[in-house]
Design brief:
Pfam families: TetR_C_1 (PF02909), TetR_N (PF00440). This protein is mainly α. It is built from ten helices and no strands.
């Protein structure tokens, strides 16, 4: 029986999936219209029927990584919902660490990305935060999740790595830093993330409670 050589037609989603595969294996700097075309077995010019340029691919990568976040379930409180969202974002970023620079430097642009922004703002507004407070909360929370994930999971080349030799420092001049030598050996970066997340949520709750109380006075 003769096998069909019919190629799957190009689409925006197929292009973005191919681009994500390139990024996952080769890094963000490898992305170009030509490289994505090679991955798909087509000329780069064919891509322009579905994506306008490289920037559109980068915006799409932002989108499809967020699309891997599990669907939000109804939470008992805004704190639980925000905590779940932060953890879910961290998980997909850890799954695609080469995309971290996108989340550190680019805003959500496509409707499929902005829908996550809309949902978070709606959650915060219903909780009682003002529009400005909701924006600040979202921005700071995302910055914490992305920044902490960059610090812990951003890929590095072996020749770029540098590890501090704390144990070689003077104990007299750096007594507290010397204490870290033993602590770091058993330090859990995920517990550190949870520590920071809980501290942020506690601070936000306290701020909201104070503002609501001041309104009643």
């Amino acid at each position: 029986m003769r096998q069909s050589n019919k190629r799957e037609p190009l689409s925006r989603e197929r292009i973005l999936r191919a681009a994500l595969g390139v990024v996952d294996s080769e890094g963000l700097e490898a992305i170009s219209m030509r490289r994505v075309g090679q991955e798909l077995g087509v000329e780069a010019m064919s891509l322009y029927n579905h994506v306008a340029n490289k920037a559109a691919i980068l915006d799409g990568l932002f989108e499809i990584v967020l699309a891997e976040m599990p669907a939000a379930t109804k939470a008992a409180t805004w704190q639980v919902a925000l905590r779940d969202n932060a953890r879910a974002l961290r998980l997909v970023l850890r799954a695609h660490p080469h995309t971290l620079p996108l989340f550190a430097t680019r805003p959500a642009v496509t409707p499929a990305s902005i829908i996550h922004v809309e949902a978070a703002l709606e959650l915060l507004r219903k909780a009682g935060f003002s529009a400005d407070e909701a924006l600040c909360t979202l921005q700071v929370m995302v910055a914490f999740v992305v920044g902490h994930t960059v610090a812990g999971y951003s890929p590095t080349r072996p020749e770029e790595e540098s590890r501090p030799a704390y144990e070689q420092l003077s104990k007299q001049d750096f007594p507290r830093v010397h204490e870290l030598v033993a602590v770091l050996a058993r330090h859990d970066i995920e517990k550190e993330f949870e520590f920071g997340l809980e501290a942020m949520l506690a601070g936000l709750e306290a701020r909201l409670t104070r503002r609501k109380a001041s309104r009643k006075e």
